[in-house]
Amino acid sequence: MLLGGSLLYFDACRKIILLSPRPLGEAIPMERTSRIPEFYKKPIEERRRIVAEFAGLTEEEVRLLSNFGNLDPAIADRMIENVIGAMSYPFAVAVNFLINGKDYIVPMVIEEASVVAAASNAARVMRRDGGIKSRATGPLMIGQIQVIGLKAPYYARALVLDHKDEIIQAANEVDPVLVKVGGGARDVEARVVEGPRGPMLVVHLIVDVRDAMGANAVNTMAEKVAPIIERITGGKVLLRIISNLADKRLVRSWVKVYKEDIGGEEVVDAIVDAWAFAAADPYRAATHNKGIMNGVIAVALATAQDHRAIEAGAHAYAARDGRYKPLSVWEKDADGNLVGFLEMPMAVGTIGGATRVHPVAKVALKILGVQSATELAEVMGAVGLAQNFAALRALATEGIQRGHMRLHARNLAIMAGATGDLIDKVVEIMVSEGKINFAYAKELVEKLSREGEADRKS
Ligand code: MEV
């Protein structure tokens, strides 16, 4: 294989040997192997040195990786394995959010331009009548226990349900702290599921996890009750793990947007038609939901949530009827105003996990001012709804590129040296002329600065 002008092949020991493509006889083999025993035990610097050597990193690249920014290297090293550095993302805030009558400044961490601006703009037109309404159900998570090898799975199901109290009691013994704060195992459900290897019994342990995301509590409980379920059913328990289809931990958010605030009934109709496209076509629904997740995940990142769990839950919920659908609904009410509703699982925590370990996540929660995981879920649902509205409004009217190009023009103007009022002037000219590139930004900055200078002297 020829890669970047070098010849790469795998030798018998599966090491990668890097050879120069020039006279083979002269090649000095440089051994590179990713088999590094006890890599995880080495100090961060040593790991970084090994990787730098492996990948041929420059000093500047190594320096970049070594910059942990606002994360203490010791904390980073405890959060995950094999740490060699940290990576910063922009931390922004969306403003204007009024949710359940309370004002919120919403921290967002995201790499995509326009998301934060879109959320703030949407929230601004949603402030009437107390703003966005949002309600989260109780923090109930599901632990799954898979039972196989059953001759009579329906009979086993009946036995499990008959032993509900014993199972709940055993589960609660493993987490007295959770029970003390009002949480704990609440219920047991059981289904016989037909699989490619025959029927199996799937037991669901329903746990109120209070302010935690809950994976640890639920997984521990599921493991604890597994032997009891084996004893009751005579089957073999295999998996004992949380379900990310958290359909007992939902957030519902809704809002009315007045037609006169968004350009009239024509715009309302266009947004409803845009939603109808997503309702009818999974290809569009995926993108529609991606727009919702732009907001939800940005808040999840800022507050150090398990964002993969939220994503998995959202998409599984969107497909719960056997067809992938949008998580939101947009309609026109009797007065011609736009009304929107979002429903999705929202498994988030304000205690435990990285939320309380990452110092910036703690600051994010303080900015949000939420008192519980339920309140955080309500905010995140509201942000998802606002983000969705912003995307549909832009798509159904001017298209999203105009806003994107304006932001791009702004970045170019700043890169070209514009400051203060000059930024807006340069942006206006570039956007109105449809000429958005760095060379033109530079030319305009120089020209307008010269003119400004001349004006000041005269
Ligand atoms: C882009 O990140 C998100 C959108 O594609 C969402 C949508 O199409 O609804 C604009």
Write the layout of secondary structure elements.
Blueprint: E1 2-3, E2 6-10, E3 16-19, E4 30-32, H1 44-55, H2 59-66, H3 73-79, E5 91-99, E6 102-109, H4 115-125, E7 133-136, E8 140-148, H5 153-162, H6 164-173, H7 176-180, E9 184-195, E10 198-208, H8 215-233, E11 236-243, E12 250-257, H9 265-280, H10 282-302, H11 307-318, E13 328-332, E14 338-345, H12 359-368, H13 373-396, H14 401-415, H15 421-433, H16 438-457
Antiparallel strand pairs: 1-2, 2-3, 3-4, 5-6, 7-12, 8-10, 8-11, 9-10, 12-14, 13-14
(R)-mevalonate binds next to α10 and α13.
Describe the protein in words.
With 458 residues, this protein is an alpha+beta fold. The protein folds into 5 domains: 1-30, no CATH class; 34-88; 140-242, Alpha-Beta Plaits (2-Layer Sandwich), CATH 3.30.70.420; 249-397, 3-hydroxy-3-methylglutaryl-coenzyme A Reductase, Chain A, domain 2 (Alpha-Beta Complex); 402-457, Orthogonal Bundle (Helicase, Ruva Protein, domain 3), CATH 1.10.8. 47% of the residues lie in helices and 21% in strands. The protein has 16 helices and 14 strands. The chain has a 4-stranded antiparallel beta sheet with strand order 1-2-3-4, with no helix packed on it. The protein has a 4-stranded antiparallel beta sheet with strand order 7-12-14-13. The longest helix has 24 residues, at 373-396. Residues 112, 287-288, 290-291, 294, 391-392, 395, 400 line the site of (R)-mevalonate.
